[in-house]
Amino acid sequence: MPEPSAPSPPVRGGEAGDPPIPECAPTVTEMHAAFARATTLCPDRFVVSSYRFAGHEVRLRIVGRDLAAQIGRPFAHLEINEKVSPTTHLTIDLWDEEETGIPCPVTSTDTFGSGWTIGNGLTTASPDGRYVGHQLRQSINWLDRKAQHVVGWTASSKQLSLYERGKPLHVLLSVWYNDRDVQMVHAGLVSKNGKGVLFPGMGGAGKSTSALACLCAGFDYLGDDYVGLQVLAEGSFVGHSLYNSTWLEPEHISHFPSLPPHAIPGTLPREEKSLVLLSHVLPKRLARSAPISVLALPRIVDTHATRFRPASKGEALLALAPTSMLALPFRTGVRGFERLARLVEHVPRYWLELGRDLSQIPRRVDELLAEVTG
Amino acid sequence: MLTLQARFRPNEKEVAAKVLDEEAIIINLSNGIYYSMDKVGGFLWAMVAEGHSLEEILAAIVARYDVSLEQARADIERLAAELLQENVVLASDHTPPPREHPEPRQKVAYESPQLNIYRDMGDLLALDPPMPGLEEIPWKEPAEGSSG
Q: Is-contact B36 B116, C-beta < 8 A?
């Protein structure tokens, strides 16, 4: 049966029109061809949306309405309703096999004979570094760094893990961001009146608690575990929101009662925390970017009160660098370390000692901002 | 066996390091172990990074800090051995230019330098070896408005 010709796909806020399939490795070419077949066979399931990631225009084209909804939600606060310009900096093409009937043309990302296990997935790269592939349980995605194009397959949106639903394409986007000189760092970030407070720290330090406490008290929220760090030409620092997701830990449930009703529980054995998409809870308090005015290093202390005190540059670098450089999917090396060192040298830094009364956190952060910005 | 004529250089292939207000923060990017040294330790690392011999470092420390020659020598040899063992420094035969730092008017109080070693990330990396950093791509355009 001949395949029907595809009408123009429904587009929100942009112009229909496909970028040419880039000349690339055979595996990735097959993926692009499969995506094109999916768009042709299922034009009614083709969803296009536009975003701004760290100031760069991104176009998301997904065949599979459920998949589009799942992938789009963590980025909802970054969506734009402008016409897609010719200078799109990243195109992401994904299709859902269950919704389209188009299987993945490749069985694994192990095309180049080498791979690295990162978290639950396998990552590989071509010898020249142009192509980076990431494979999870039920998805395979490829990034072409030259063409700035992601193409990917998902077996079924219903089988996405909580991690994939909360941080879609995390590994590949960490590479793409780094190529744009935006470094993923392990930190929370909130802002008030356009002034950002970065909460760097190891797991369990209190980053999420601090960020969520501030969000619930009226601060703008940009992230509670990973944000993008950029150094501007004049030497100032900007933090970029990557996702609007947060993971709810058991102790958060009682402290932040507005969040649990929106919690999405995990279903897999390792999914102990629940996912909350803050675009469902407090959409107007989600910010895209904020200049970083102060570093607040959270540390849980056995007191009632929360207070802050100056931190040394070395202490700040020790709180920020190890996990930002070693625990993230993409290693930024010495250049990334130098960038973090510049941040702690030039931005005021304080310990934020978190006492048992979490309601004091936003007040202390307010005072901290007043202290550094005058 | 270490001699005072020994020189070292940071293992730049695997290590990133910075001294900030006499605090040295060192990260081994290949195995995830990271280190800190402050005060005398930070001063010592700065001199090691410049390529000075242990003898030159000893002379600078004794000139700057209120410490006996014997104590300073013992601490320097101990710390150098630790840094070598951790593969944070490598032997070097490069001789740097003479160090020109003004001596303080009054000697600074001395504390034996300690190499603080943190292995928590190293355990994590043992489970998930690092993905090599992808090289700068030759076609990359400089990011607008960014200074890297």
A: yes
Residues of A in contact with B146 (CB under 8 A): 180-182, 230-233
How far apart, in whole angstroms, are the C-alpha atoms of residue A56 and residue A148? 11
Q: Where in chain A is the domain with CATH 3.40.50.300?
A: 183-373
The residue of chain B with its CA nearest to that of A232 is: B146
CA distances from A52 to A82, A89, A354, B9, B79 (A): 10, 9, 34, 44, 50
Asked whether the beta carbons of A154 and A64 are under 8 A apart, the reply is yes
CATH class belonging to A183-373: alpha beta
pTM, two decimal places: 0.90
Mutation choice for A interface testing from B12, B14, B25 by most A CBs within 10 A: B25
Has the ipTM of the complex gone over 0.90? no
Task: Enumerate chain B positions whose Cβ falls within 8 A of a Cβ in A.
Answer: 12, 16, 18, 20-21, 23-25, 27, 29, 32, 34, 36, 38, 42, 118, 120-121, 124-125, 128-135, 137, 139-140, 142-143, 145-148
pLDDT category at A8 given cuts 50, 70, 90 is: very low
Integer-rounded Cα Rg, in Å, for chain B is 18
User: Half-sphere exposure of residue B71, counting CA atoms within 13 Å on the CB side?
Assistant: 11
Read off the tokens for B87: 């593969």
* Minimal CA separation from A6 to chain B, in Å: 34
Q: How far is CA A28 from CA A117, A127, A151, in A?
A: 20, 15, 8
Domain ranges of chain B: 7-127
Average pLDDT, integer, range A336-352: 97
Chain A / chain B CB contacts < 8 angstroms: 121
| Sign of torsion over alpha carbons A22, A26, A31, A35 | positive
Distance (Å) from the C-alpha of residue A232 to the closest C-alpha of chain B?
4
Contact B128 A118 (CB under 8 A): yes
Mean pLDDT per 10-residue segment, chain B (148 residues): 84 93 93 94 93 92 95 95 95 74 79 95 61 50 55
Task: Name residue, tokens 């709180």.
Answer: A319
Nearest to B18 among A125, A234, A317 (CB): A317
CB contact under 8 A, B137 and A341: no
Instruction: Choose among A339, A372, A365: nearest CA to A191.
Output: A365
Model confidence pLDDT, tens digit, residues A167-194: 999 999 999 999 999 999 999 999 999 9
Q: Return d(Cα A296, Cα A290) in angstroms, integer.
A: 15
pLDDT score, position A5: 33
